[in-house]
Amino acid sequence: MLYFIPTPIGNLGDISYRSLELLKTCELVFCEDTRVCKALFVLLNEKFGIKIAPARFVSLHSHNERQVLASLDKAIFNQNVAYLSDAGMPCISDPGLFLIRYAQQNGIDYEVLSGANAALVALAASGLCEKEFIFMGFLSSKKAQRQKELEKVLANPYPSIIYESPKRILALVSELARISPQRECFAIKEISKKFEKKFKGNAKTLAKTLENENLNGEWVLVLAAKDENADEKKGIFLSKDEIMALSLSTKDKARLLAQIEKKQTKELYHKLLSQNKV
After folding, report:
1. What is the number of alpha carbons within 13 Å of residue 64 lying toward its C-beta?
2. pTM
């Protein structure tokens, strides 16, 4: 039997009793990083006075999943086998997807245990979600693709959840503040750890707050849904800054700006061209 076991994202006490009992029976453990996994087992054994001591650890992560799975003997799943990512729920912005598909394609019994998940903790703590939401995970690190994804987030009709690293959280919120300064946001770092901290406000206010904060730790950002009613009241769907941030041709931007500023498209087109040359 193959078990996908979520691991604590901060507090060791968040691991379930069932997870501990199953790990004690596993002779083989697939894990994102064997060093992280072994260190976790040492801590769990010390904290709970138990003995988790699998005979074999196999590294299985996003860079080697296909190769490792191609070489597997399906007979190994006749015993209890576990898969653990470094922290949190496997397959949710973590490796594990290809192992799930491998099990499905080869008729291997598997089960995903419930447990720690940063996205849902942040969403519940945000107070921004009544029912539906959209999980975006980490945005692309490539500038052009990241910009497109950010535009998509801002257009989402439901609250959006984004994961971000400490190195890029300020840049992300600052960009949001530039494009949609009044968008309500909730940010949380170091979930379930000693220095967990929460922030809430519009994007403009949040950006200023984070400029003076210690940004170390893993971050989750929740953005409120696009307020369609507010847009209707304004009589426009995009501000000038929002239009300029879009991945559109200069001519298309000029056409949109002409509607807002009540000017000739040609006039604005030449103005934008001259600005781009500067």
Report:
1. 11
2. 0.78
